[in-house]
């Protein structure tokens, strides 16, 4: 069960690295604007905010990856704590998105599905 949790935490981390890429590196490109539903003007205006938000996503991914590495090296407690911090924050952000913008439910589910599965599997593995 721990391995399954680690796999889903890894998928969540990879997704958030991708989100980082879109928000921090390609925010004003037509493809990324289509994903987020923004115009060229909106993207230009919100570029600095998106850059900052993208780095939040990257840092959550890094925390999760360090937790995965710790678990794989036999440091289950430390690794689990880091994974819970990383993917738990991802999951919480998805819940906030869903609660604050119900029209963004698809994005919230996309953002939160892997973290939710990782949290559930890790809890089951640890009890």
Characterization of this structure:
This protein has 127 residues and is mainly alpha-helical. It has one domain (2-22, 49-126). The chain contains 6 helices and no strands. It has helices spanning 2-25, 30-36, 40-45, 47-72, 76-100, 105-126. The longest helix has 26 residues, at 47-72. The radius of gyration is 15 Å and the shape is elongated. It comes from Mycolicibacterium pallens. This is DUF1304 domain-containing protein. The chain crosses the membrane at residues 54-72, 79-101, 107-126.
What's this model, at a glance?
The protein is mainly α and 127 residues long.
Show the helix and strand layout:
Elements lengths: L1 H24 L4 H7 L3 H6 L1 H26 L3 H25 L4 H22 L1
Helix pairs in contact: 1-4, 1-5, 1-6, 4-5, 5-6
Protein name: DUF1304 domain-containing protein
Pfam families: DUF1304
Organism: Mycolicibacterium pallens
Which terms summarize this structure?
elongated, mainly alpha, 127 residues
Q: Report the uncertain regions.
A: none
Number of helices: 6
List how many beta strands DSSP finds. Answer: 0
What percent of the residues sit in helical stretches (DSSP H or I)?
Answer: over 70%
- Topology pattern, helix = H, strand = E: HHHHHH
> Sheet with the most strands?
none
Radius of gyration: 15 Å
